[in-house]
Amino acid sequence: MRTLLPIVTLLLLTFGCHSHSPQALVVENSTPIVGASRAAKSRAWVTLTNCQYVATKAGDGDSFRVRSGTNEFSLRLYYVDAPEATLTYPERVRLQSEHFGITLDATLKAGARARERTQELLREPFVVRTRWASAAGRGRETRYYGIVEVGGKSLAEVLVSEGLAQTKGVAPNLPSGEKASAYMKRLEDLEREARQKRLGAWGSAPEEKKEKTEK
């Protein structure tokens, strides 16, 4: 036993004297986002109030930079996909143009309008609900999925209802407890109405021919 004591003591000094507290997420060398690692680990929803939109060249309708207190981070909306405003990702633009049934040029114009609409809506302070789940992207900076509410309305719902986004993407159950499948169904209904009214990107699509019914 006496020969084991020095070894045990050495191990404790080597590994036991370092505290391993939860590591906070850091965005571009800014102050760590308080509670971020805890929320990401448990996937608990966190509510950020009085958020501000930060204009950048890379922002679009469903992905943009947010300021919350002294922190800034890039946010990607859950549940929806807005058209791209540039040809940075041509394959993505092509798929979006096929979804809306419009040309690539019309898709880019719809993407620019979606970006403008998001900027318009987020001129006033808004609420972000997030679980700090990382949204995969091709950029170097990490983006985080979230839900944005402004003036009591969901930004995702507004974009879809105005024909400036499609129902698509990562879809967790809502903070309210509503199931993701039920919410996506509601968004699909809004998208169908926008398509019928030819709003937003749908306005550039060819009119659907009404099928003749045999008498």
What does this structure look like?
This protein has 215 residues and is of the alpha+beta class. The chain has one domain (24-204): OB fold (Dihydrolipoamide Acetyltransferase, E2P) (Beta Barrel). Helices cover 34% and strands 21% of the residues. The protein contains 6 helices and 8 strands, in the order ααββββααβββαβα. The strands form 2 sheets. A 5-stranded mixed beta barrel has the order 1-2-3-6-5. A two-stranded antiparallel sheet has the order 4-8. β6 (143-150) and β7 form a beta hairpin. α3 packs across α4 (104-121). The longest helix is centred in the middle third of the chain and has 18 residues, at 104-121. The protein is globular, with a radius of gyration of 23 Å. The termini are far apart.
Secondary-structure topology with pairs:
Blueprint: H1 4-15, H2 36-42, E1 46-54, E2 63-68, E3 71-77, E4 80-81, H3 90-100, H4 104-121, E5 126-135, E6 143-150, E7 153-154, H5 155-161, E8 166-167, H6 180-197
Parallel strand pairs: 3-6
Antiparallel strand pairs: 1-2, 1-5, 2-3, 4-8, 5-6, 6-7
Features:
alpha+beta, OB fold (Dihydrolipoamide Acetyltransferase, E2P), disordered C terminus, five-stranded mixed beta barrel, disordered N terminus, 6 helices
